[in-house]
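Data availability (excerpt). The following record was deposited with the supplementary files.
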Amino acid sequence: MRKYLAALCFIVLVSLLWLPASFAVEQYIYDDGNLLNDGEREELTQLAEEYSANHDVNLLIATATDLGGRDVVQYTEDFYDEHDTEFGDAAILTIDMSENREVYLAGFGKGEQYLEDSRLDQIREQITPYLSNENFFAAGELYLEKADQYLGVNPIINPESILLKTWFQLVVAVVIGGAIVGFMIFNMGGRVTVDHQTYVDANNSKVKRKKDTYVRKTVSKTKIQKNSGGGRGGGGGGVTSGGHSHSGSRGGF
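Predicted structure:
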């Protein structure tokens, strides 16, 4: 009997040790474009590993200077297809340093659900200034931080909503608290029962009637100027040649 219990304990222990590893990838940063130094790659790897474990979504970064004749979207799709069984639920930031200089973000599985097109647009717009200044480490760091933040917010809620900001919540709490205290202090002094009607004798008043006369209405029109500026952006998601659906956001820098 003891042998069976020992064998059962061993199996359970091995299962517990193996379970977390099934959600992790061996590599998070694929810097084929050599845009990062060793220290930056190591730091981004640590962040990616930590944030990925928070949500069971692998957060990956890929860089390249030669896409093999493909555009950045197809390159990202092929990159996922080559590692689909390993990556699983994932989000990928691809930085194309060829003559096109484009960036593409894609979400797969749970990553597609929580990082849909509009959310990826928000992340891309925030990291683009760093990419334009060739500060690739800062761009990668911000991408990981924002992905971690967005993956923790229900998909139907705008993760950049002011309602989710800590400072706004503190202001609301202070205002509500102040209103409650003010209301309590106001009611401590008793209720005032005298108003403008107290001393009015309606029967002897010389005001017989009142009338409002409509004279005219004026309508003003102002032409709204359309903004014709703005950089490249958009793209959206799609389906890889391997049949994997994904969200996406594409833009130049």
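Summary of structural features: Residues 4-10, 12-22, 163-169, 224-231 have pLDDT under 50 and may be disordered.
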